Automatic annotation (TrEMBL):
It comes from the Bacteria. The gene is flgG. Residues 97-159 form the Flagellar hook protein FlgE/F/G-like D1 domain. PROSITE patterns: FLAGELLA_BB_ROD. It comes from Carboxydichorda subterranea. This is Flagellar basal-body rod protein FlgG.
Length: 262
């Protein structure tokens, strides 16, 4: 069987994976805190038909070898953690991180997840939670009588209570960052989980020690660039078409070989 059939098939599978990734990027173009992904490829095994440097005669050797590859495979989806676009909302519970860091979210099983989505809400107990009801870590509780909520750039959360003009501090937000954020695992729900590849979280105060500062009344939208994704989509589609043409050409060649004797 001709190698080109399976080689081109691996190319089609790889380009399909690229299109799947692009489709996910485009589907989340308006998702808060979403980070786009890119597919990395790796060539497969090579069959060596003649080794370079093989002696031919005395004083002569083959200058270049003869190898044929067997296709390609996707080896990684790299998460790109560039800053997303900011959108003003005027909602006092909407927060954005200007720079490095993740909000910490306490999951129901006691583990901590991480997110760049700062669209927080209050639950029935006044806690700041995500849209799924998972509490911010460390816990921030807004008193029910609070008239105004203020979040400083360093993460200090304060409120104005009735009959008072002095802000009262009710909590301190902390951020986490990682040596290798690309090693975080996507959990869904705008959350990431730490892995051995990401390293242990480094927790600190916003605005200090390399952590980004906070801004209130803004949200970070995804960092997906629609035009860039459309160009990548065209390239992937053309590559898919080219590989299908290679399969068709190989099939035509086999058909020609089969019809040599009638």
């Amino acid at each position: 069987m001709m190698r080109s059939l399976w080689t081109a098939a691996s190319g089609m599978v790889g380009q399909q994976f690229t299109i799947d990734t692009i489709a996910n990027n485009l589907a989340n173009v308006n998702t808060g805190g979403f980070k786009k992904s890119r597919v990395d490829f790796q060539d497969l095994l090579y069959q060596t038909l003649r080794f370079a440097g093989t002696p031919v005669t005395a004083g002569a050797e083959i200058p270049t070898g003869l190898q044929v590859g067997h296709g390609v495979r996707p080896v990684a989806t790299v998460k790109i953690f560039t800053q997303g676009t900011f959108r003003e909302t005027d909602n006092p519970l909407d927060l954005v991180i200007e720079g490095d860091g993740f909000f910490q979210i306490l999951m129901p099983d006691g583990t901590v997840a991480y997110t760049r989505d700062g669209a927080f809400k209050k639950d029935s107990e006044g806690r700041l939670v995500t849209s799924d009801g998972f509490a911010l870590e460390p816990e921030i509780v807004i008193p029910p009588e609070a008239m105004e909520v203020s979040v400083a750039s360093d993460g200090t959360v304060s409120v104005i209570n009735p009959g008072s003009n002095e802000p009262q501090t009710v909590g301190q937000l902390e951020l986490a960052r990682f040596v290798n954020p690309a090693g975080l695992r996507n959990y869904g729900r705008n959350l990431f989980l730490a892995t051995a590849a990401s390293g242990q979280p480094i927790v600190g105060q916003p605005g200090l020690d390399g952590f980004g500062s906070l801004a209130q009344g803004f949200l970070e939208i995804s960092n997906v660039q629609v035009v860039e994704e459309m160009v990548n989509l065209i390239l992937a589609q053309r590559a898919y078409d080219a590989n299908s043409k290679a399969i068709q050409a190989s099939d035509d060649m086999l058909n020609t070989a089969n019809n040599l004797r009638r």
